[in-house]
Amino acid sequence: MQEINSMNNPTIKHVRKLQQKKYRNQEQEYIIEGFHLIEEALKAPKRFKFLLGTKEALDKLVANPELADLLNLNSSKIIQINDSLAEHLSQTVTTQEIFMVLPINQPGTYSFNYGRWVILDGLADPGNVGTIVRTADAAGYNGVVLSPYSVDIYNAKVQRSMQGSQFHLPVIRQDINAAIASLKENDIPVLVSLLNQNAQSVFDYGAPAQFAIVVGNEAHGVSASVIEQADQELYIPITGKAESLNAAVAAGILMYQLVQVK
């Protein structure tokens, strides 16, 4: 185990800079914070570069017998820091004083040859994206695809809102057209969610065993080019006076209805 107590230490400067998207992309690393996320990463198991925490936080982590076997406290990858450094590195109001640096392992290409998928077309809100990934995990989907115009999935708010689901299923950043092409090559239909009463109600639609459902941008919906490629347009009926549903709520309704999870 290393011990670092200075903000001028190169490792601390590096970890702090990972809060910036440009630096994350350059270094191909990102940071997560908090016991729950780190426990899920360790159980996955995910290879990490550094684990940093105060003595109290590290002691609490290894007090879990399930995790103690996964950690070698003698490793140079384990770094003990003081309270001031924990505050310096934290991106939350109340820090849990424990952090992990992991490599970004985004595949250049991905074959969508089976399963149920959620595709996010330009979603910008970190909370919505994280909630959708978490719901996809809960509903048993095979993965989530984000367009290049969606929020950065390594954003701290997205990571927190996914609540560890990012370690349970693939979360892929890829061009939507490429993903749709791969789906169609494998005879997997593409469904789109629209705010259009002329589309078919999702409650009247019998989904096939395999499919991909596209959820659109919070303000503008699914892009026209994606709608043109869709095999089925779906609509969630609104019986009250609200004009629309929150993107994450709509995605949750769609995901559970399409698989009819009991």
TrEMBL record:
InterPro entries: Alpha/beta_knot_MTases, MRM3-like_sub_bind, Ribosomal_eL30-like_sf, rRNA_Methyltransferase, SpoU_MeTrfase, SpoU_subst-bd, tRNA_m1G_MTases_N
Keyword entries, A-Z: Methyltransferase, Transferase
Name assigned to this protein: TrmH family RNA methyltransferase
Family named by the database record: Belongs to the class IV-like SAM-binding methyltransferase superfamily. RNA methyltransferase TrmH family.
Domain of life: Bacteria
Lineage: Bacteria, Bacillati, Bacillota, Bacilli, Lactobacillales
GO molecular function, one term: RNA methyltransferase activity
GO biological-process terms attached to the record: methylation; RNA processing
Pfam families named among the record's database cross-references: MRM3-like_sub_bind, SpoU_methylase
SUPFAM superfamilies cross-referenced by the UniProt entry: alpha/beta knot (SSF75217), L30e-like (SSF55315)
Residues covered by the RNA 2-O ribose methyltransferase substrate binding domain: 31-108
GO cellular component: cytoplasm
Signal peptide region: none
